[in-house]
């Protein structure tokens, strides 16, 4: 498990270099991906459902991204995009294509649907966390509270 967490950290750092994000934020994006992966592993351990685990991981990445964006005065996308890299269902997409090539269509359909469901869960988790955070910020602003 420690190895997975370290790899999630590194998997979130390398997109920072690829997307030319400010190098001062490199550690914070690594923590973002690590947080998302730890939440994913925890939820997956109890539910055995990669879709709900991906949603929970993406939701935590989104909340972390919004908080760090406020703290470091930068767009939240600079944290959320590298942060979701460890959650992306790359191996299931690969096995889907591999099963299509091997003409094993029933297994390809099953893997493909899981890939689409996980991708949708990631997108929905990021969207819901961003919307929730903005809604709470708006309420706090209306009541003159500060985050």
Give an account of the 3D structure:
This is Threonine/serine exporter. This protein is an all-alpha fold. It has one domain (2-87, 116-142). The chain has helices at 2-18, 26-47, 50-72, 77-84, 90-101, 105-142. It is globular and about 60 Å long. The mean pLDDT is 93.
List keywords for this structure.
ThrE_Dicarb/AminoAcid_Exp; membrane; cell membrane; mainly alpha; cell inner membrane; 82% helix; 0% strand; 147 residues; 6 helices
Q: Please, how many domains?
A: 1
User: Into which percentage range does the β-strand content fall?
Assistant: under 5%
Mean pLDDT: 93
Count of helices? Answer: 6
Uncertain segments are none
> How many extended strands?
0
Helical content stands at: over 70%
Q: Please state the structural category.
A: mainly alpha
Largest sheet: none
Rounded radius of gyration (Å): 17 Å
First-last Cα distance: 33 Å
Written as H for each helix and E for each strand, in order along the chain, the element string is HHHHHH
Shape: globular
Q: What is the multimeric organization of the chains shown?
A: single chain
Family: Belongs to the ThrE exporter (TC 2.A.79) family.
Subcellular location: Cell membrane
Membrane topology: Multi-pass membrane protein
Protein name: Threonine/serine exporter
Secondary-structure blueprint of this entry?
Layout: H1 2-18, H2 26-47, H3 50-72, H4 77-84, H5 90-101, H6 105-142
Helix pairs in contact: 1-2, 1-4, 2-3, 2-4, 3-4, 3-6, 5-6
Overview in brief:
The protein has 147 residues and is mostly helical. It has one domain (2-87, 116-142). Helices cover 82% and strands 0% of the residues.
